[in-house]
Amino acid sequence: MQLLLCFDRTRPRTQPSRCSISAKRYLTSSSNRRVLLPQVHRRRPSLPAQTKQEPSLAETLRRDEARRNHIIGRSVRQMAVQSPNNGVVVPAELGYSVDSLEYVVTVGFGTPAVPQTVLIDSGSDFAWIQCKPCGSGNCDPQKDPMFDPRKSSTYTPIPCNSDACRSISYNEGNGCTEDSACGFTLSYADGSNSAGVYSSDKLTLAPGVTVDGFRFGCAHGQGGRDDMSDGLIGLGNSPESLVSQASPSNSGGAFSYCLPPTASSAGFLALGVPSDMSGFAFTPMHPSDHIAVFYKVTLTGISVAGRPLDVPPSAFPHGGFGMIVDSGTVITWLPAAPYAALRAAFRRAMAAYPLAAPIHPVDTCYNLTGYDGNVTVPGVAMTFLGGATVELDNPSGILVEGCLAFAGVRPDIHGNGVIGNVNQRGFEVLYDTKQLRVGFRAEAC
């Protein structure tokens, strides 16, 4: 069975979506037993007005760069924080972009189920939501009423002397608290943080589809975030992620998602192997330098307007460059030489349009005011090990607010690159951990 979490962001009720669901109700397909769950863009029109000013693209990219640097740093160093007992890794990930490039699902925590709108992130494995009691100033504003574990008949704090607690106790601040409950503390490089009690409760993904004893952080202290989400669910490749905890009965060690290319199109998150595998271009999934949470592929080439970039073979060492596929990073980070060639080719193809001031770290931005949508954006394609070629959705998978959604890694920084979520728009991205491959299927949402 494949569990499909699907959303329709702004489509009128009278217009059917690709997933054929309403954005406010669950449906079950009897033909393939797929369970559909609404997933919405974080800035959908029905969200309440935010109490804090939304950050600029520059602020989003600043946080994005911090996340990317942290990922690269983790991917190249030894796992000094690995648990000596069972090897389970729960990394302290960075804060997440709060621009409209992040996506959320609404799931239910506890019994009775309380709807919570949470970020989904393939570059993280730990799940957490804000919980009561949370004093004034200790937690951030959020979309939904805060979860109160005291009202759930299935809620259980994880004891500090349990294996589940010991598996995360290497993180700073994690371990036993005064009341013998397992505590957790997550500190992010951008200054945000989350702390509380490591817990378990029933997670409802759709009516009748639950994960009993789902382990997550019940945060009673939260700070530094600039979004209105209720928390986060990680999809990373580790035992703590939703994918692992839902296996094998639901997901079977695989999941996929499609991030919508426009504000009016539908997307989804799916747990499990699709029943129809046609249309996917597959590339091998590689271990990510001792860090289990990340999913890594090998980039072997890039083309602009149908022409391969003119870069020396040394630009892709060992026949390719390792790239971490991450739904929580906004833009794509490339080695310095391929990025320089990409930028030059893209600028030549866009010579008819005036350049705008760069927004660090992106340096190829355009002033497209007055063109009324009559802009011809050159196609960009990425080729991976095994010959899988991905033609990026044009223009939504290439430009973000008029800027080329790529940046170059400084030559003195070594490690993996990152494929951001802008480049993934419109594709069903399948992470098949059993077959050790990543698949891309175009025009999936």
UniProtKB/TrEMBL annotation:
A biological process from GO: proteolysis
Annotated Peptidase A1 domain residues: 103-441
Top-level lineage group: Eukaryota
UniProt-annotated catalytic positions: D121, D326
Keywords for this protein: Aspartyl protease, Disulfide bond, Hydrolase, Protease, Signal
InterPro entries attached to this UniProt entry: Aspartic_peptidase_A1, PEPTIDASE_A1, Peptidase_aspartic_dom_sf, TAXi_C, TAXi_N
UniProt GO MF annotations: aspartic-type endopeptidase activity
Signal peptide region: none
Stated family: Belongs to the peptidase A1 family.
Protein name: Peptidase A1 domain-containing protein
Organism whose genome encodes this protein: Urochloa decumbens
